[in-house]
Amino acid sequence: MPKLEQFEIKKYWQIFSGLKPVENKLTHDQVLPILFNSKLDTSVLNKIWFIADIDDDDQLDFEEFVICMRIIFDMVNRNIDSVPDELPDWLIPGSKAELVNQRKKERSTGASDAGSVADVPTSSPAEDTRKEVDWYISRDDKTSYESIYESAIVARDNSVSYVSISSAVRTKYINLSSQDVEKVWRLVNPKLGTSLDKDPALYFIHILRQVSDYGCPIPSQLPSALKETFTKSRVSTDPSSKQGEVRRPSSDVSNISSYQTPKRGGTDFSVTQGTDWEVVRLQRELANIDAELSSVQQQPSSHNVSNDRLKLVEQQLKQFVEYQRNLVNNSNKPSQNIDIRSLRDDVDNIDQQVQVLEQYLNTKKSELHNLNIEVQSLQ
Length: 379
Hints:
The chain is an all-alpha fold. The protein has three domains: about 1-115 and about 260-270, EF-hand (Recoverin, domain 1, Orthogonal Bundle), CATH 1.10.238; about 130-220, EF-hand (Recoverin, domain 1); about 275-330 and about 340-379. About 60% of the residues lie in helices and about 5% in strands. The protein has 15 helices and four strands. The strands form two sheets. It has a two-stranded antiparallel ribbon. Helix 1 (about 5-20) packs across helix 4, helix 9 (about 180-190) packs antiparallel against helix 10 (about 200-215) and helix 13 crosses helix 15 (about 340-379). The radius of gyration is 28 Å and the shape is elongated.
């Protein structure tokens, strides 16, 4: 992954402030529109949130938000194929380096505990007298657990992420540490997925309730029947599910780029369009483009953008608009032996011309930005 650039951080700040953070933090609900607009799979988004939320408070401050956004856009732009298990050093904020190291130690300790043999004797007599976890779930308990499960953010396939279910459980049972929650998550999640189905989620709550209320030790392994159930692959019956879906590669995602610079990994924010603050930001950027174009045109001739080519683009766009008007006018007239195939060919040609013009416009914007950098360096 390319490292963070200063202009990226400024863009992330514009989005962060536009989401109206409270006490300089954003909740999961506030970030949710951006996550969904990225079109990434829910399991991927859950993993991104988990790795970005370094302090495990189910909120993102600005530094954590930068991590979240950068990984999302690197995934969208296909600069990386999967979410990293650990943050690269250049993406770790200096103020949170100690927390990241602590998190790594807790995970390594939890992994060794989960792999330990169940019959290893302990030296503490107090632990020997503690009540073991009861795997039976009564009807009343199940009703209570389902209430907690439904209070979490449930995905369309009825699965829940670590962030959402752990937050709901710790709100209900306060005598739990982050390490306890992570151990139980790994216990009921043998395949180490980024989300749980309803049944494993109910046992996740069931175990943590007994740990919190009765001080039960966390089991080292699941009963064989439960483990077999939890490791089965889930087949989605949701018609909107993406399982088995084959798509034609989309040029809209692979070609999106910022006007300020040639394409760089993880810097595209077009997937966040559709909100009021984004409209304001785009209007501001349009005004900046006009201002920069005027300033560059006033520079010495060695830094001028080719006016002839810009006029050519303008002329072609006008011709395209005129052609569209003619199509509309002709469609309102009685049909007289219309050649459908010819019209389709014309529409395809127009689409290709529009794509070429858009690419040319993006190239000009990039050249404009580079010229501005050169002018500033000469001043």
